[in-house]
Amino acid sequence: MNLFRLCGDLSHVVSIVLLLLKIRATRSCVGISLKTQFLYLVVFVTRYLDLFVTFISLYNSVMKVAFISTTAYILYLMFFKFKHTYDKDHDTFRIQFLIAFAAALAFVTPHRYSLLEVLWTFSLWLESVAILPQLYMLQTTGECENLTSHYIFALGLYRALYAVNWVYRYSTEPGYWQPVTWIAGILQTALYGDFFYYYVASRRRGKRLKLPT
Amino acid sequence: DSIETEKDEL
To answer: Which tens digits make up the pLDDT trace of A94-109?
Structure first.
């Protein structure tokens, strides 16, 4: 565990807390993509199946359970409690393509052919593109609430910090080698490129995030 | 089998 990794994890936790705050404070999930949240739940469930077979640390297990349960709770809020506020007409990204993309790569790039390894690889590729429905929704609506933009920023920051952690570990831990994780992680961070730019620009002006249409 | 590090990241 190094500082970059810890800050990355914390940023991931913060992003989820921000999303929950947004939904609970405004009692609405307007501007939030249900499809992205659904994909994250699939990512966490397929990746963290190893909870039942390997124990790494208490920290690791607690975080895994926290990610699965909070994302399931967010989906519950969006699907049942605040369903009437869900902006279905703007959440139109076709996630079948993302699932097909991740499934195809999961069969080509696993470290070894076992059920857990293939699912783990699938989760990495799916996570790398899972933000796309949310970014697409933001693009079509043009702007979003502050909390929503902070949420997306914290989520992007998490992967960016992980990338720094990989460079750090690669240079300090002999034999540290995770090519699929790295490539999927860099793809994921790159998808935030445009968003980061407009987010920082909007912070500087002290205004809401507004995207050019 | 190629070497790959234990999956200790989240």
So the answer is: 999 999 999 999 999 9
